[in-house]
Amino acid sequence: MRTLNREDLVNILYGAAILGTGGGGSLTEGIELIDEALAAGKTFRLASFDDLAPEDLIGTPYGCGALSPLTEAERKKYARLPEAQENFYILCMKQMEAYMGKELKAVISTELGGGNTAKAMYVAATTGKCIMDADPAGRSVPALQHSTYCIHNVPMCPISVMNKFGEGTVVTSVFDDERAEDLVRALAMVSQNHIAVVDHVNTAEVLKDAVIRGAITQSLKVGKAYRLARESGADYAQAAAEAGGGKLVFRGIVESNDWGTVGGYTVGTRILRGTGAWDGHTLKIWYQNENIIAWQDGQPWIMAPDLICLFDEDEAQPQLNPYGDAGTHQSVICLPAPEDWTTPRGLELFSPRFFGFDMDYKSFFN
Predict the structure, then answer these.
(1) Spatial contact of 326 and 303, defined as CB atoms under 8 Å apart
(2) Which of 97, 155, 164, 257 falls 20 to 30 Å from 56 in CA-CA distance?
(3) CA 349 to CA 356: how far, in whole Å?
(4) What is the DSSP string of 204-219?
């Protein structure tokens, strides 16, 4: 088991934001959460499955909702509701442990993202648990069923949900993971498009072969490479691509970025006009919270489950959707999909056809 210092934590969150493919929540808010826990004297412990007993319980805490900024009308709608005095992610975990009648030993981040990875780490440190060096996505993903848990048939229930107003419940049974997505998303939509969740509570013995091991270490590696390159004035996009086993694939200027909130997701299309080596080319990226498909010059080019990761070159930061307006300079890297996603079951759950596109997945790296 390893104790993480602030530099480790920031590197992990930057790496998770890059691997988040435009989703996974706010990096800025994630770092604020980490600093809050550190200021309170909390300890962040990174564990492997070898550090746990087979019967130890592990849960997956995260946030579900849209990435879109709230409108003034939405703010007014909820103005009469007081926010919970205690962090609602902690309340969500407490609600789960009360239902289980037993404390959880550790948590697993539901995906890699500047916000959701931080939330899992915050919950772990604040409640005295360790964070597992694993996750069930290896990137950020739009829907609850987009997980290696689903690939390996690990049940999602019970599901603890809690909103910022302290309104919570435990879902004890669902038909399948897709139905769980519908139910939890609906609750998020009436909670300012943001709700805390803890699910997939199971033993270390069950979960050890149902997740992507080393995911947090991978985030640290990519984030450290990016930060060192940025601080030295080197090509941070290239450095991040190399650290993640991928490739720098495009640089350009945003021509348009049109988006809206649809069914509890942030859905949009970003178009880049190439610069430098990519002058004369265009790149169109469609996202549903996360970047899903990219077309170069009108032809399908990169697609989920491969990772399409963007940087805002004006701010030298990983690009979060739906931000990055016309005129923003951006770079794009592609990283290979985790192996589980390229299996028949993985592609059934998470590939262009899942999102309604009439195309089969083709790896960028083959």
Answers:
(1) no
(2) 164
(3) 12
(4) HHHHTTSSEETHHHHH
Per the listing, tokens 């009469």 go with 80
Q: What one-character DSSP code corresponds to residue 71?
A: P
Beta-carbon contacts of 193 under 8 Å, excluding residues fewer than 6 positions away, are: 65, 66, 68, 70, 74, 261, 264
Tokens for 218, please give them.
Answer: 């991978």
321-342 b/e with 16+ CB inside 10 Å = b?
bbbbeeebbbbbbbbbbbebbb
229 Cβ contact list (under 8 Å, min separation 6): 235, 236, 238, 239, 240
| 306, two tokens | 């491969």
| 10-residue mean pLDDT series, the chain (366 residues) | 97 98 94 96 97 97 78 84 91 96 96 94 96 96 91 95 96 92 90 91 97 97 98 97 98 97 90 98 97 98 98 97 96 97 96 96 94
Among the listed residues 14, 138, 13, 143, the one whose alpha carbon sits nearest the alpha carbon of residue 66: 143
User: Using an 8 Å Cβ cutoff, are 181 and 144 in contact?
Assistant: yes
Question: Beta-strand (E) ranges in 101-217?
Answer: 106-107, 130-132, 134-135, 159-162, 168-171, 194-203, 212-213
pTM of the model: 0.92
CA–CA separation, 295 and 282 (whole Å): 8
Name 199's bridge partners. Answer: 60
User: What are the backbone dihedrals phi and psi of residue 310, each rounded to the nearest 5 degrees, phi first?
Assistant: -115, 150
Q: Find where tokens 């970025």 sit.
A: 257
Q: Return the amino acid letter for 145.
A: Q
Which CA distances in Å does 194 have to 22, 156, 229, 310?
17, 19, 34, 24
Nearest-5° Cα angle at 166, 169 to 146:
55
The answer to whether residues 360 and 353 touch, using CB atoms and an 8 Å cutoff, is yes
Tokens 């399948």: give the residue: 176
* Other CB atoms within 10 A of residue 238 CB: 16
HSE-up of 186 (CA within 13 Å, CB side)?
7
C-alpha count within 13 angstroms, C-beta hemisphere, residue 336: 13
